[in-house]
Amino acid sequence: MDVTEAIRRRRMTRSFESRPIDSEVLDEILMTSLLAPSAGNSRGTSWISLLGELETARYFEAATDESWRRSAPRAPGLLRAGAVALLVADPAAYVERYSAPDKVGSGLGRSIEAWPVPYWWGDAGGVVMAALLLAEEAGLGACIHGAFRNVDAVKSSLGIPEPMLVYGALLLGHPAGDDRRSASLDRPGPSRAERIHHAGW
Fold first, then answer.
1. What is the DSSP track for 133-144?
2. Which CATH class is domain 23-177?
């Protein structure tokens, strides 16, 4: 599969079969995704891999509540994911890297607050996109489960050190084939062509 085909075919999968994922396939996806661009080769992104029902349950129990697990329309399909991979970013790794002699002139090595655009978020997005495409190539479905609730509980449950930031979770598994079409796809807005500006805005 070429890159263009993978991008065009890729869709968020939110309903999985309760079928296990091969651990070597998962490791290869996560390892290869870390080849995504890393500012200054800071290597400040890391995965926490949770494989199988017992391990993924730790994530879902921390990241969601019983009411959501019981009543959210998409919960059953998401909870069947064969793996959850949590992407974590370490801003301190970027500050340290940019305080080195070859980068110190940027001024970004002074502190986290010195960064007008936090590169760790961009790097994390690149890693996740790479993992989504690699999952597609491997014949798996995947989706992003955002880190917008219960983040402290997730960090505590998985032993993530306090300076680290949680970007989100990648849910992976074998697609069940009964995904509902997202209403977001029908939102009005500019076309892709309208979002490309030539020679200026």
1. HHHHHTT-EEEE
2. alpha beta
Give me 138's structure tokens.
């491997």
The pLDDT mean for the chain works out to 95
pLDDT digits (tens, 9 = 90+) for 127-157: 999 999 999 999 999 999 999 889 999 999 9
Q: How far apart are CA 136 and CA 134, in angstroms?
A: 5
The Cα-based distances of 193 to 8, 111, 184, 189, 198 in angstroms read 16, 39, 19, 11, 11
- Asked if 115 and 108 touch (Cβ cutoff 8 Å), the reply is yes
Distance CA 158, CA 48 (A): 8
d(C-alpha 43, C-alpha 120), whole Å? 9
List all residues 6 or more positions away from 24 whose beta carbon is below 8 Å from its beta carbon. Answer: none
- The DSSP string of 29-81 is HHHHHTTS--GGG---EEEEEEESHHHHHHHHHHHS-HHHHHH-TTHHHHHT-
pTM over 0.85: yes
Q: What is the pLDDT of residues 26-81, one digit of tens each?
A: 999 999 999 999 999 999 999 999 999 999 999 999 999 999 999 999 999 999 99
Q: Which amino acid is at 42?
A: S
* CB 130, CB 35: distance < 8 Å: yes
* Sequence spans of domains, the chain: 23-177
